[in-house]
Amino acid sequence: MSELFDAVDALVASRSALPSAEERKRLRVAHGLTLDDVAGALKVRRATVSGWESVKKPTEPRGPEREAYARLLRQLAELYPASGEPTAPVPVTFTGAPTAEEPRTLSTGQASEAAVMTATENPQTPAPAPVAAAPAAAPRPARTTRPSSTSRRPGAKKAAPAGTPAGGTDPRFENGPLAVVDVEDGQVLAYCTGGLVLDVPAKSIPALVDWTLREAKLGQPKLAGPGKDADPLIVLTEAALERYGLPVTLTEEERLAGRLPEGHKVIKQLIRVEWKLTKRGFGPWARIYRPATGSERACVQLCIPSWNALDTRHWGEAGQLPPAELARVLGVYASRVMTPRGSTAVTGLELMTALHPPTRASAPDADGKRHSEHNPGSLGKDAIDPMNWPPCEVPDGHPVLKDLPRFHVRGPAEKLFEEAYDWARPMTDAECSLRFLVGIDVNMAFAAGANGLNVGLGEATHVKAPAFDPKLPGSWLVDLSHVDLSRVKVGKEWVELDGSLLPSPFTPQGERPEGPAWYATPTVAYAVELGYEVRPLEAWVRYDNGRYLDGWYNRLRDAYLATMADLGVDADLAPADFLAAMDGHKARDPELAIVTSAIKATVKGGLGKLRERPRGEGWRPGEPWRALSRPTWRPDIRATVISRTRINLHRKIVKHAAFTGQYPIAILSDCVVYAASGPSPLDFLPYREGKPLPGGFKLGINPGLVKWEGTQDVLWGEEVRERFNAPELNLARYIKDGTVTDVGNGE
To answer: Which residues pair with residue 487 across a beta bridge?
Structure first.
């Protein structure tokens, strides 16, 4: 009988009444819960919870998730009735002058006890969480901090804005992944994520490192099973630099060297107590450590914004933010991507390794001991021997090319040249009769190119006259000059196009190849897809391969989509609504807009690091450079991602041309410009009843979909090209705001 009762209860629960989407969101925000919090508790995706709260087109939970979600909403409704009077304490918020209720600054010991003390003082009242920022938050949201039972130190600064992620549930890192250290009225303060502010007793850099590791409870759990926890990050403001005897800015000599001189007094202080620095020395991103003992690590990373640690091209004005706001920006990035390990490029590369650690613990041997062994699916712990690299895949100056004549220029038959598009053509008379030039930009194009991509994991094998295999990563020497874009297969049907108005998919400049050249697998596979036979002359293929970048793509995609959703741009918006949401989205929360910029830079920079070139250090052509010693120095993976990204774009262009008869005017990397009768992408993208052309361009925020980049008059384009006497000037470079500078200098 009990089974029948359970079945009846489940049936009733499956139809549990739910409040409106607006009310669902109000209740979540009132309790300080983020979409991630709810998604984690219910074991669903963040986008699923977002869909349940979508005002325009809410989705409905089903099955056991509906019962659990209804239970959550009922409890929140009891705490926060619609009248707006909560029945339980909520985190204190303020926007005006400090009051007696202002968020408290905690000592290290108090911080670790605060949550427990709050709960034990009133066992019937759950400890409140920080207030989350609404998706379309105001530029300066209300501020909050974690509640505690301790007294606030008079004169302490306000805590970070709402919406800052907490440090997670790991008690070792309960104060978050990082802290921004500042000095006010002689008191050293550490601004953490989640609005927490700690008193810092340390009076020197060595003492600060020791405090960080022993008391601050900063860090971040590992991203993959056999990986390592992230080291705590300490950001030093200018006031903190002065307090600890460091220069506020570097001299020109120090800036060029990227570090302080070895004889600096702070470095001597560290050496005296047996702290070490990595090879990069004490620079904008300094790592201070002691050799690990067993599984215990002792390492702290410093970030110094006034030494240009936060590149303005990627982090905007983050380095100029007040400490609490900077902690929020870096904290959101850390929680959604990872704790920064250096520049966005370095972090992008480190993220690959964090998700695919090179080694793992083996099964116990006969004596019950475990040993370090290769982690399948990773790039391993050892770099490829420089002399084992295929000559076609390496950049000029590589050791494997040391026997080439000094001034020899390698051509397409000697060098793999997979790069992004930089192509343009003169406009036709018909295009000149239209009024506008409209640019569209592919979201996270290179991340989308990495999604589901099979790449080599180990060394390459040389094969003569191979049969082409589209599933085998490698570099192929093949003649594709016979591929005629005037007649290609689109799907299963042959179509006639004006090939003179299309760029070749096989070269970055869009020029038709003239003979054999080296190509990555996606490029050759596309020639076959277009309906043409290929016969490679030779190849370097990698039989050890896998989808190494899938986890990397997924994490960066989710980070981007979550942050854009916080800015009011959801993934399920209709085309017109999407364009409206994108209009001015950065102004809704400039700090989160910085995070989106950093995420995109992490994608491009991380892929660029796969083929890092020499960076001074007295390097000479033919000699190895430092980056070659990394397992992640993999120019073949970079080339494969770029190849696929360029091919993905060309496929959409061909689909669009076959269906509409419209051809691109210019392409720069992931930006495409078309002539149109109106100023909006909707004036030339073929939507029918809200649905895009299958396989063509689609407006949306997901990676691989497109957004509006900019619009200019056709007359502007003609005038610019005439003024600079450049009929094929790449207008995609200037379509965003119409300002033309540095003509011919490239991107």
So the answer is: 496
Judged by DSSP in three states, 663 sits in coil
Mean pLDDT for the stretch of residues 112-134: 35
Per DSSP, what are the bridge partners of residue 161? 143
The single-letter DSSP state of residue 193 is G
Distance CA 318, CA 315 (A): 6
What is this structure's pTM?
Answer: 0.79
Model confidence band, residue 568 (pLDDT cutoffs 50, 70, 90) = very high
DSSP 424: E
DSSP assignment of 71-92: HHHHHHHHHS-TTS--SS----
Q: Is the pLDDT at 476 greater than 60, yes or no?
A: yes
Closest CA to 113 of 157, 197, 190, 174: 174
Contacts 24+ apart (CB under 8 A), 9-12: 10/67
Confidence of residue 328 (pLDDT cuts 50, 70, 90): very high
Which residue from 126, 34, 120, 145 is spatially nearest to 88, judged by alpha carbons? 126
DSSP 257-279: HTS--TT-HHHHHHHHTT-EE-T
Q: How confident is the model at residue 528 (pLDDT cuts 50, 70, 90)?
A: very high
With 0-12 CB in 10 A as exposed, 13-18 as middle and 19+ as buried, what is 681? buried
Q: Give the 3-state secondary structure of residue 497.
A: coil
Contact between 61 and 50 (Cβ < 8 Å):
no
**CA separation for the pair 524, 505 (Å, rounded):** 10
pLDDT score for 194? 87
Q: Three-state SS for 314?
A: helix
Write the pLDDT tens digit of every residue in 275-301. 999 989 999 999 999 987 766 779 999
Q: Where are any strands of DSSP class E within 472-621?
A: 474-479, 487-490, 493-496, 516-520, 538-541, 545-546
Alpha-carbon distance 450 to 548, whole Å?
A: 9
Q: Is the pLDDT of residue 334 over 70?
A: yes
At 648-701, the pLDDT tens digits run: 999 999 999 999 999 999 999 999 999 999 999 999 999 988 899 999 999 999
In angstroms, the CA 521 to CA 533 distance is 14
Judged against a pLDDT cut of 90, whether residue 508 lies above it is answered with: yes
| Tokens of residue 107, six digits | 């000592």
Cα dihedral 648, 649, 651, 652 sign: positive
Q: What is the CA radius of gyration of the chain?
A: 28
Backbone angles phi, psi at 374, to 5 degrees: -60, 135
**Torsion angle in degrees (nearest 10) through CA of 154, 156, 162, 165:** -120
According to the model, what pLDDT value does residue 39 have?
85
Which residue, among 594, 508, 687, has the nearest Cα to 321 in the 3D structure?
594
Concatenating the DSSP letter of every residue in 209-225 gives: HHHHHHTS---B--SST
Beta carbons of 666 and 730 less than 8 angstroms apart:
yes
